[in-house]
Amino acid sequence: MELYSQRENTSKNLRTAYRYDLSIEFRNQVIHIWKDAIGYSENRISGELLDTQFPERFNFINAQYARMNAVLCEELGYMWDELSPFMSLGSACGTLRAFFKTADTNNALDVVELTFAAMFQAQSDSQYMSYVQPKLKASDAVVKLNTRFRQNAIGYRLEHGRIIRIDSEFLHAEAVEPALQLMYSEGYAGSLDEFRLAHEHYRHGRYDDCLTNCLKALESTLQKIIELRGWEMPGEAKFDNLFAEVKKKGLFPPFLDSHLGELKKFLQAVAVIRNEEGAHGAGSVPNEVPDHLVAYQIHLTGSAIVFLIHCNEAFGKTKP
């Protein structure tokens, strides 16, 4: 059920600039999703289990949260006792909940990634499903999470297991999301990993690394097309060489022949921006890559990858 106030907020938020911090209201909404999709085990008082009729259910849920806490400690470089200030009535679930509610934005987003990955893993276990019987399927939980992001005008989405930052709902829907879907469904695993890593660098403000991985994703897409076609791989798999090979083989529609120079400039913009802003040492005066340029780069890369994959699909239908 969606409250009237939520529907109102959604329509307003679509016209409002995104925020990139996580409100306590949003964090509480995420915890409610955990409860429905993973289960909730914070039901101990003075070390005694309240629900004595279903101890197996508690143990399954608590073990799941304990594993997530262990991963969190390792990834953040914590020792076990460093999560102890967040302990809540001896429950691993309460520990994670308390940490999530007070963590900085980047750590909190890491927790979101971790918990949603755990949902899919837990729900693939028949014993877990039998004892816990979660109310919400993991795939539906992702949909609900992304709805909460939109309702709160928070500029993040969970896509293929990774939190990515978005700056425009329209550009995300038209460029980034189709690129992710195509790379995932068509077997462009290398490109997908590099494009997702570019988003991760973007979220953490590592703009040089973001630009570098955008270029790698584009080059990997061209390499994959050459591999799928059985064409000769250039000695140096750089953009110019890769583009020249697919052009020579006729990847692009014939009516674009007179415009291939402009097409190359469009695709090459990913490489140019990276080489100008994100590559090599900057000497005594470091380059400060502006945020809006990096956002443009991500959307440009997504559009270029979608175009190239569709060109390959069309080529396969018309050429032997």
Biggest beta sheet summary: 2 strands, antiparallel
CATH fold descriptor of the largest domain: Four Helix Bundle (Hemerythrin (Met), subunit A)
| Structural class by helix and strand composition | mainly alpha
Q: Estimate percent helicity.
A: 55-70%
Report the end-to-end length measured between terminal Cα atoms. Answer: 53 Å
In sequence order, what are the helices and strands, one letter per element? HHEEHHHHHEEHHHHHH
CATH architecture of the largest domain: Up-down Bundle
Percent of residues in beta strands: under 5%
CATH class of the largest domain: Mainly Alpha
Low-confidence stretches: 1-16, 44-53, 278-286
Shape: elongated
Cross-sheet strand order for the largest sheet: 1-2
Number of helices: 13
Return the average pLDDT rounded to an integer. 80
